[in-house]
Amino acid sequence: xxxxxxDYWLILNGLDCLYSANTRAELERATRETLQCxxxxxxxxxxIVGAAxxxxxxxxxxxxxxxxxEFAYVQEHAVQHPVGAIAVEKGDVGPITVSQLMxxxxxxxxxxxxxxGGRRMHLDYELDATTPGATGSGFAxxxxxxxxMDFTDRDRQVVDLLRSHLGRVWGRMMATERMVxxxxxxxxxxxxxxxxxxxxxxxxxxxxxxxxxxxxxxxALIMGLSAMTVSTHVRNLLAKLGVESRLSGAALSWRRLxxxxxADVWRV
Length: 268
Hints:
- The protein is 55% helix and 10% strand.
- By secondary structure, it is an alpha+beta fold.
């Protein structure tokens, strides 16, 4: 079944909301509202589990849905969900319903269904998909749950079009938050010169402040230089590093300083 023009219009509106979000709270709200508008259901969830750092794990759901015990179970046992297990094995899973994997009666007796609150809330039908790009480690995905009526081919098509965008906007949000956290422990100029020997001592000093999120005017005041001189240093050091933006320069610096974290940490 082909999507209608009205479906594409709703998808475009949803994407506009997602890409317009500037904070985690705004993106969480945009995620819930977009999913509810496009695929109405009782519950809409997005999760990132097994991330490299605990701060990058994520669980968004309809507020007030789970008990504390159910919420803890879902977070701890997400990979034991039938679709979660497939995602761990294959990495990327397109939209799939639980009913495609097992009969309803079997699902109703499954430990995850019982312990996660599915039985209590009568959430018999579930549509899941991974969201590639949301995390460099672990897995990320969306889950949409209903108490009545299974999901249609139209629902699967909509989620398939949406999931890569969800991965992208959440990947960028996580990268921004990592930048903020790391700015609180900015690298020293000496450490930067050790891993980026192409830089002069002064350029490394400027880059250290760039990594801390400072703008040219702020760096000028701190270092006792003119704003024009700082701007020249920034332009020169970015050219030497082969990058075009301050964010990319800071990202490259952290990759060189912490290679074990992997380049995917700063895929933005």
